Each structure stands twice: as structure tokens, then as C-alpha cells.
Amino acid sequence: MLENIPSHSTMTELLGQSLLEVWQALCLAIDKKYDMDRVWNTGGKQWDYEYKYRRGGKTLCCLYAKSNCIGFMIIFGKDERIKFEDIRGTLSDAVCRQYDEAKTYRDGKWVMFEPTNTADFDEFAPQPGRPSRSDFVQSGFLKHSLKQRRIKCHTHFNQ
């Protein structure tokens, strides 16, 4: 766990304004749909920061930040991988390629995306009802939240 949560100005300086808006839109959409624990960490060797969404000891997704770049990782467990294969034909070649090239670990397939705008996630959106990790792979994660909301959400940073 990170001792000092980065400030809004630190994140703006690190990412730039346009990527910060993508980061905030992702956070806003996830927070609106999911009741998750959120944890800041260092980003390891490749990233400066990690912002993890967890529930019940399982990670739903992670956002990563480094200079002028954000990463958005979705962890596909066994059930999510089956659902992904069921809808593979409806997804873009780019999403399928990213999924196919991702490394599979004992606890699932970790797929990293590096979005540059909110339109990058038009294919993913949670289904109505009680949300779960598998909602990420069903018909369009974040679709309505990201396209219709470009508001700033400062609750994830120290002011």
C-alpha cells in the first residue's frame, strides 16, 4: 500500500490533462457500478502508480500511471475467460489480439490496455443487476458512462 496518495496536481503533471480525464472517467464509471475496495500502490518496475479495485480478496481491475501513459488491466478468471470466448466474435480484432497476447497466470489471464481516450472502451460495459468481475467481458464495459460523462472526479487523489 502506498503511504502517500498522489495529489491531483501530481497526476496531472505525470499523465497530462487529457490522460488524466481518461483516468478519471474510468474511475468514475467503475465507482458508479461497483462497490469495491480501492488501493494505491507503487507501480512496480514499469509504472509509477497502481490503483487497484478489489473485493473479497479478488482484483477486478487495476489502473496504472507513468509519464504520459495509463494502463488499464482486467483480470480474467476462469469464468470470465469462458464468457470472453463466448462473445469473442462480437469484439474487435484489437481487443481479441490484446487478450490472446496476454500472459496467463494460475489465477487468470491479465490483459493490459493502454487507453488514450474513452472511446477505447466502447466494447466493454457491465450488464444490469449485481455486478461482478465477469461483467467486464459482457457487451460493452463503460460504454454509456464514458461517452456521456467527461466530468472531473477528484475524489481519488489527495487535494
Oligomeric state as shown? single chain
Mean pLDDT: 79
Q: Looking at the structure, what is the overall shape?
A: globular
Q: Could you give the order of the helices and strands? A: HHEEEEHHEEH
Q: How large a portion of the residues is in β-strands, by DSSP E?
A: 15-25%
Poorly predicted spans: 125-131, 137-155
Largest sheet: 6 strands, antiparallel
The tally of structural domains comes to 1
So how many helices? 5
Structural class: alpha+beta
Strand arrangement in the largest pleated sheet: 1-2-3-4-6-5
- Write down how many β-strands occur, each being a DSSP E stretch of 2 or more residues: 6
| Helical residues, percent | 25-40%
Question: How many angstroms separate the termini?
Answer: 19 Å
Rg measurement, Å: 15 Å
Protein name: DUF3788 family protein
Short structural description:
This protein is of the alpha+beta class and 159 residues long. The chain is globular, with a radius of gyration of 15 Å.
Walk me through the topology.
Elements: H1 8-15, H2 17-33, E1 37-42, E2 49-55, E3 58-66, E4 69-76, H3 78-87, H4 93-101, E5 104-105, E6 108-113, H5 143-148
Antiparallel strand pairs: 1-2, 2-3, 3-4, 4-6, 5-6
Name its key features.
6-stranded antiparallel beta sheet, alpha+beta, 159 residues, 6 strands
